[in-house]
Amino acid sequence: MRKTIIAAAFAALITQPALAQFSLDPRFTDNDGDLIADIPTNASEWVNPNTLVFAYTPVEDPAVYADVWKPFLDHVASVTGKRVQFFPVNSNAAQIEAMRSGRLHIAGFNTGSNPLAVACAGFRPFAMMAGADGSFGYEMEIITHPTSGITEINDLKGRQLAFTSETSNSGFKAPQALLESNYQLVANRDYQPAFSGSHDNSILGVANRDYDAAAVANSVLNRMLARDVVKSSDYVTVFKSDSFPTTGYGVAHNLHPDLQAKIQEAFFSFDWAGTTLEAEFSQSGEAQFIPITFQRHWSVIRDIDAALGVQYTCR
């Protein structure tokens, strides 16, 4: 079973339980204490759209993933009796705002942005991709190009390190915590941070030698290797973390309760065999959707956020 515990480097930063710091925006309630927004009790607040909008976490080429997700979205349409539309997003912030404003109904939020989506957008995650044996997780890797002269973490001093976005776990929060706690390397003092916008961009940036190094999710790296977007000779790994939970899938809190149940049914009844979803995500070991809870599976991510002093401020 893949590990889902926080690395000792990150654990050393934690001074108080993350649960004490995590809270939902005042527009939501959590009467059952599961840390996610309750479904409204007033039926007049339920939303039951004719077309369901789905968004996958931001990637370099959303058009590719529109095709990847098509058989799954066709299945959701069959189970729910609704039209289902793929909505390409170019940033985590745009994806969260789309759900917060009511334009997004079903989504896969990446590991690091999941807590913000839960707190600010009323996101109710219930599923995650896993291997055929139920194992799950990915690792953060710090990669460099072979001619950079960087062979260990301390060699990052005085160099440029690409992050993805400030809401990303493996693309920013986890590596920043690691570098500061274990190696006393502080951004803008000991190394120059850059923000690429996505894991794809960071990986390509290293492969093309635009960045000295980058912190990325190896699930994305493995899929890019499988598609021959990059080659194993394009990069060298200088650090690999313990495992983290992957993208969390769920719905907007105010969808009609029966519709939420149907959407969950669609996730857990989808047959991956022979589909474009299987072809794409099997490259990083996924073969099915499994049930998860935000309270349990994202505790490690909330701990990292707590250690970094992250505030879930909703505008």
From TrEMBL:
Q: Does the keyword Signal apply?
A: yes
Protein source organism: Saccharospirillum mangrovi
List, alphabetically, the InterPro entries matched. PhnD
Under what name is this protein listed? Phosphate/phosphite/phosphonate ABC transporter substrate-binding protein
What the entry lists under PANTHER family is as follows:
PHOSPHONATES-BINDING PERIPLASMIC PROTEIN (PTHR35841)
Highest taxon listed in the record's lineage: Bacteria
Q: Which keywords describe this protein according to UniProt?
A: Signal
Q: Which family does it belong to?
A: Belongs to the phosphate/phosphite/phosphonate binding protein family.
Using the record, list the residue span of the signal peptide; answer none if the entry has no such feature. 1-20
